[in-house]
């Protein structure tokens, strides 16, 4: 699979998949994120499927139609490690201090 960068909307949709424990249809995604238009979700699902980020997991039923359900084919990206504690460490080792001046 060729790795490509996801758009903001594709990332929004993938994050919904990664949080879900079950396959989702476009209507499920719209219910979870009503701020994303169904007319935006459907073409993005098609692109994500073509590029291998999601796969068809089965068929679901809505009131009036049959719909595809998708599941992520890829794991969420790894989070960067948490920053180390900000506790002060030992002072840096200095060379050329007073002991060298006295002996030299």
Q: Provide the low-confidence segments as ranges.
A: 97-103
**H/E series, N to C?**
HHHEEH
Number of strands: 2
Shape from CA axes?
Answer: globular
State Rg.
26 Å
Mean pLDDT: 81
Number of helices: 4
Distance between the first and last residues' Cα: 65 Å
Largest sheet, strands/sense/barrel: 2 strands, antiparallel
Q: Helix content range of the residues, please?
A: 25-40%
Fraction of residues in β-strands: 5-15%
Model description:
Helix content is 37%, strand content 14%. It has helices at 8-19, 26-32, 38-50, 98-103; strands at residues 54-61, 66-72. Helix 2 packs across helix 3. It is globular and about 50 Å long. The model is unreliable at 97-103 (pLDDT under 50).
Brief summary of the model shown:
This protein has 104 residues and is of the alpha+beta class. It is 37% helix and 14% strand. The protein has a two-stranded antiparallel ribbon with strand order 1-2.
Please tag this protein with its features.
about 100 residues, alpha+beta, two-stranded antiparallel sheet, 4 helices, about 35% helix, about 15% strand
List the helices and strands and how they pair.
Blueprint: H1 8-19, H2 26-32, H3 38-50, E1 54-61, E2 66-72, H4 98-103
Antiparallel strand pairs: 1-2
Helix pairs in contact: 2-3
């Amino acid at each position: 699979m060729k790795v490509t960068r996801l758009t903001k909307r594709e990332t929004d949709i993938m994050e919904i998949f990664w949080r879900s424990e079950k396959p989702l249809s476009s209507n499920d995604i719209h219910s979870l994120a009503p701020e994303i238009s169904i007319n935006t979700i459907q073409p993005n699902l098609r692109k994500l499927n073509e590029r291998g980020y999601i796969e068809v997991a089965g068929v679901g039923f809505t009131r009036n139609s049959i719909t595809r359900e998708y599941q992520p084919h890829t794991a969420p990206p790894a989070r960067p490690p948490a920053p180390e504690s900000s506790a002060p460490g030992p002072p840096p080792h200095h060379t050329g201090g007073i002991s060298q001046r006295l002996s030299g």
